[in-house]
Each structure stands twice: as C-alpha cells, then as structure tokens.
Design goal:
The chain has one domain: di-copper center containing domain from catechol oxidase, CATH 1.10.1280.10. The chain is built from eight helices and two strands; from the N terminus they run E-H-H-H-H-H-H-H-H-E.
C-alpha cells in the first residue's frame, strides 16, 4: 500500500523525533555518507564532459526521485513509520519556520563561521560530522537568507511560471534551455546575481553553507527541499497529462548532446531504471 509524504509543518513532536532518529541511525551506519558521495559523483555540469544525469539535464527530476526513494528506504529500514516530509518554501519562508525547529533540523549558522550550533545535526552533538564533501569542513553550515547579500525564497507565482509550461524540456537539454518545465523548476537562468537563480536553485542559495554545490546532501534539509520539488513534478504531471518526459529519443550522433543526456527509455545511472519507469510512482507513495 502506498505511504504518505507530508508537509513538515504538520508533523507532530513524535513524528519529528522519529524522523530525526532514523536519519541519525542511517548516518551512524555509514549509509548517509554514501548518499553524499553519489550526489557529488553525479553532479556533472554543462562544462564537463560525459553524461549529465543529476543536474543541468532532463533527468534532474527522475534522478532525484530515485535518489529520494533510496534514502527513504534506508530510513524505513530503521523505522517503518518514517517517510520523507517536504518543505513548502512558498509558505514556510523565514529562518524560524517549520524546518528550522530545534527538535528537527536546527537553526541558522552562527555569524562567525556559519556553523550550525542548534538541533540534532549540530557538530557539537557528535552525531553529524561531515565526512564527504568538496571542502575539508567537518561541521554543518547554513546562511539562511544570505545575511551579507539577502535573497528571498521563491514564491508561489515563481512556481506557477514553471507549472504552466506544458512541455517537459527542450533542446539543448541543459542549463541554457530557456523553455520547458524542467529548467524553469531547476532554475538555471541568465545574467548575474540572484536573478540568475530560480526556484530549486534559489532555495539552495537561500539556505547557503553546505547546501551550495555537489555536497549539498550533507544538510538534511536537502531531502525536504527535493521532496517538495518532487511534489511539484507530480502537480505538473496531473496538470499536463498528455505530456511526458523528454527527450523521447536519444540526441543523434554528431549533435552537441549526443551521449550527454538520458532519453525516456534509457537507463538512468547509477540505477537499473529508466525515466519512463519513474514517471508514475503512485503505487509507492503519495503527497498529503
């Protein structure tokens, strides 16, 4: 039977505790750091050679859908009552809103070094040492809202711009795609400064600290953020039922994107699964 993912703001104290305890157990087992390594390995940008799967590509959404399921399965092996909550950042928009409770994710980083010192994922607890990353930092950091260069979270109107685009993705299938739901939601824009970051990308920038770059999985809010991104994909799917994942066929030999993106029926590394198989997961979970 399908289980339910719920808005983090609706969790009870017991549900928050169970989620945190399961996350810490997955971390103690060493599984969590493997998730960080996988995301770093598959964060391939436009400027790098080879296949792009996790970001700057059509498979951004199915790749993270499978990634979330893997983490959720690990949590449920610890406690079968736990599911991934989602953070609706169009509603919970401040540094004191639902995710940042001391009994959930903890709060903002301190001013001197952005180290998170509150909550169960603070370095001082001894339970959340960063072991995988693109820097040598060992403690979780955040800069909610970017104190020195303030940035706002995306709004419902920003999300609506993405949701009303009926086409899933368009050529050149990367960060420069100016149309299509995928990049409107992933949020690669043109220009400089905060205007270049939209929706998904802007949230990573708003949280700051560990949430910047390929090692963003080190901050547990990564999963709540991407659960909401996944929910938005399901809303787009319901609204545009005649539209599917694109490209349907691999880009042709000799084109700039040949062997650089995953087509609908191609395997999506590192899993033995295709985007087509990940479009309908209603038998696994639903959103409240």
């Amino acid at each position: 039977m399908a289980y339910t993912r719920r808005d983090v703001s609706t969790l009870t104290a017991s549900e928050r505790r169970r989620f945190v305890d399961a996350m810490l157990a997955v971390k103690r087992r060493g599984e969590y750091d493997e998730f960080v390594r996988i995301h770093i390995d598959y964060y391939v940008s436009d400027g790098e050679g080879g296949l792009r799967t996790a970001h700057m590509a059509p498979s951004f959404l199915p790749w993270h859908r499978r990634f979330l399921l893997d983490l959720e399965e690990a949590l449920r092996r610890v406690d079968s009552s736990v599911t991934l909550p989602y953070w609706d950042w169009t509603q919970d928009r401040t540094a004191t809103s639902a995710p940042w409770r001391e009994d959930l994710l903890g709060g903002n980083g301190r001013r001197s070094d952005r180290q998170v010192t509150t909550g169960p994922f603070a370095y001082a607890t001894g339970n959340w040492t960063l072991k995988e990353g693109v820097t040598d930092g060992v403690f979780l950091t955040r800069d909610l809202g970017r104190a020195r260069d303030p940035i706002e979270l995306p709004t419902g109107d920003d999300v609506e711009v993405a949701l009303r685009d009926p086409v899933y993705d368009v050529s050149p299938w990367n960060s420069t795609s100016k149309e299509g739901f995928r990049n409107r939601l992933e949020g690669w824009g043109s220009g400089r400064g905060s205007a270049a970051w939209r929706n998904h990308n802007r949230v990573h920038r708003w949280v700051g600290g560990a949430m910047l770059g390929g090692a963003s999985v080190n901050d547990p809010v990564f999963w709540l953020h991407h659960a909401f991104i996944d929910l938005l994909w399901t809303r787009w799917q319901r609204r545009h039922q005649d539209h599917r994942y694109l490209p349907a066929e691999p880009p042709a030999p000799g084109t700039s994107q040949h062997r650089r993106v995953v087509a609908r029926h191609e395997k999506l590394p590192p899993w033995d699964v295709t985007p087509d198989q990940l479009e309908d997961v209603g038998h696994l979970y639903r959103y409240a």
